[in-house]
Amino acid sequence: MRAVFVITLCFVFFLVGCNKPSTFTNISVLSQFALIENKEDVHAIVDSSVIPYIYTKVISLRELPVEEKKEKFVEMLLPSILVSQHRLNQKITRVEHIENWLLKHPIPMKSDSVFLSKLFETYNCNEFSELKMRLKPHPASIVLGQAALESGWGSSRFFNEGNNVFGIWSYDAGEDRMQALVGRDSTTIYVRSYSSIEESVKDYFETIARVNAYEEFRQERFTSTNTSELIPLLHRYSEVGNIYTDKLKELIESNNLTKYDSYVINKDYFIEEIIELSLAI
C-alpha cells in the first residue's frame, strides 16, 4: 500500500510540474505608420537610434539629385529593416525558450506547439537548429544594397506603386500583385504588391530563408556578419551570378552602407510584455 501511495504521489507531482505555467517576455515594436506624399514626408534619421517609421505609401525618387535620392531611400527603408530584424530575433528567442522548456519538461505548452507548427510550416523545416538558421537575419547593409539594386534607389514602378522593394515575383493570382510592363519569352510577369515597405522587407527575409538556392548563404550568416564573406553567397539571387554580387559589393562599399549595421530601433518604441503561456497539452 505504501508503494502505491508513493507512486501515486510521484505521478501527481509529475503532472503538477508539467502543468506549471510558463512565461515568456515578448518585446514588440510600437511602429509609427506613415505615408509619403512628397519628399518632405520622409522622416530624417539623425543618429543610430532609429524611430520605427513604417511607410504604407511611398513616392518615386527618380527625379531627385543622386545623393538626396540615396539619403531618402535609406531613410525610407532602414526602419522597416530594423523592425523585421527585431521580429526575427524575437522569434529565435522564443524558439530557444521552448528548447529550454523541453529539456526540463516532457510535454510542450499548447501555445508553444502552435507557435512552432506555424514556423516549421512557413520555413519548410522540422528541426530547431534548422529553424533558427532560417530565422537568423543578416546585416542591414546587405538588405539596403539589394534593395537599392532591385529598385534603382527607389526609382522603380514596382517600388512606387506596390511597395515592392526587391522586385519579388508573384505566381499566385489570388494575392495582391501588379503586372510587369515587359514579359519574358511571351510569358506575362507579375510582381507582388505590399501594404507597406515593412511587408516587402518581411517577404524578402522569408524568401531568403525558404529557397534552397540560399542554403549556403544561410549557413554562413548563422555564424558570421562579415559582409565580404556573405555577399558572394548571394550569386544565385540573380541570373548574372557573380556579376550581380560584384556589383552589390561595390555598391555597399562605395556608399558606406555597413555603417547602418550598428543602427538600432529607438528603445522608447519597445513594449515589453510578459506572456503567461497556456498549460501543457
UniProtKB/TrEMBL annotation:
InterPro entries: Bax-like, MGlyc_endo_b_GlcNAc-like_dom
A matching Pfam family: Glucosaminidase
Organism annotation: Labilibaculum filiforme
GO molecular function: amidase activity
Residue stretches making up the Mannosyl-glycoprotein endo-beta-N-acetylglucosamidase-like domain: 118-261
Name of the protein described by the UniProt record: Mannosyl-glycoprotein endo-beta-N-acetylglucosamidase-like domain-containing protein
Cross-referenced SMART domains: LYZ2
